[in-house]
Amino acid sequence: MGESVLTVGSATTVEPGFVHVDGVLHCDAIPAPVIAEAAGTPTYVYSAGLIRQQYRRLDAAFARVPHRIHYSVKANSNLAVLRLLQAEGAGVDIVSGGELYRAHEAGFTGGDVVFSGVGKRARELHEALAAGVLFVNVESEGELLLLDQVARERGVIAPVALRVNPEVAVDNPHEYIRTGEKGHKFGIPFDDVPRVARETRDLPNLKLVGLDMHIGSQISSWEPYDAALARLVALLVRVRADGAQDIRYLDVGGGLAVTYDEEAPADVSRFAAGVIEATRGLDVTLVLEPGRFLVAESGILLTEVLFRKRSGGKEYVITDAGMNDLLRPSHYEAFHRIDAVKPTGERVVADVVGPVCESGDFLALDRDTDDAPPGALLAVRTTGAYGFSMASNYNSRPRPAEVLVDGDRFAIVTERERYEDLVRQERASLDWRVA
């Protein structure tokens, strides 16, 4: 991976994005077939310019108040993407020790890191405190006690933010991406927070520095977010009155919707104005945790049509990308636009499916799509978030390559896995042990 790929402003100025030029889909100034020739298919392709554009748009919306943008690494953890955001001034929100390792490899220091997640292990907490993270988002009393023990063993005071479950109903596309309703596994139940805040202050190796919430992803209606934020603010006032005077961070989460089909884009100005007004006079630094918003629309999945098939009166477009490469359609019933790299001008209603041995292996069902012949390239849109990061080796399929485009240049930032990579950690000669 060439470091020069990530140098801000070093590429020729080109309007970033995915557009057809002379009948061929381009990412920025690079024709998609050029990328496919260099990297093969399936391959994820990201526009560096679009990622920068989204980051700067959100950063500018909050410019008049103290704030920090901590990118949610789980959305897309590629080192090139992380380094690009680090160069923009972002911090990161992590949910595992592995993501902490990636963050350090990408140049983030401890103070750039917020550690979230409902099931942290003692080893991960040791690693977080050794790194000097900004704070740990604690999600249960059991975690609170474990963190105090780990901090005592290390001889340090651990900075803590309590993740609050605001217990509001959210209207978004799938129940699996809702995280702030009553009974969810995430966060501390709303009514328990004042007591847990007192417990935090009583534990000798912890310091309560923040409150946190996250109600889910793809939030397209502001009412539940406004309601959750109002509850979080009221809780902050209450716990401060109860003695928690060191709270200086209010982590308001993320979840801004992105466009997968014909949805309106998130109104970032409205989001920022609402948060700023609701937190006016609180003397806190706002922490934002966008993941999908920063990277989703920057990415496509390039895939080649292998075969065409007709069965039971249904048309099938069979591609070399399957559910192991892009899980979202199967797992979340997610819609992704699919464009032909070189449109034929003819349309067909078809299922666009992959090669994986599962009936649930599909990219689109009953889709009005280009009548693409075998050998044609398709681009599955809005796959920059939760695409490669959720990919697997199911059916012993090597994971795809990843490519970063920056204006008029591109680089392969993840090499395609090879067959030998599939068994690299496995052992043919066994070291048997007995109890």
From TrEMBL:
GO terms for molecular function: diaminopimelate decarboxylase activity; pyridoxal phosphate binding. Substrate binds at R292, R328, Y332, E358, Y386. Keywords: Amino-acid biosynthesis, Decarboxylase, Lyase, Lysine biosynthesis, Pyridoxal phosphate. Residues 44-384 form the Orn/DAP/Arg decarboxylase 2 C-terminal domain. One of its GO terms (biological process) is lysine biosynthetic process via diaminopimelate. The modification N6-(pyridoxal phosphate)lysine is found at K74. Its cofactor is pyridoxal 5'-phosphate. The active site is at C357. Transmembrane segments: none annotated. It comes from the Bacteria. Pyridoxal 5'-phosphate binds at G255, E289, P290, G291, R292, Y386. The keyword Amino-acid biosynthesis applies. Residues 50-296 form the Orn/DAP/Arg decarboxylase 2 N-terminal domain. Its EC number is 4.1.1.20. Pathway: Amino-acid biosynthesis; L-lysine biosynthesis via DAP pathway; L-lysine from DL-2,6-diaminopimelate: step 1/1. It catalyses: meso-2,6-diaminopimelate + H(+) = L-lysine + CO2. Specifically catalyzes the decarboxylation of meso-diaminopimelate (meso-DAP) to L-lysine. Belongs to the Orn/Lys/Arg decarboxylase class-II family. LysA subfamily. Homodimer. This is Diaminopimelate decarboxylase. It comes from Roseisolibacter agri.
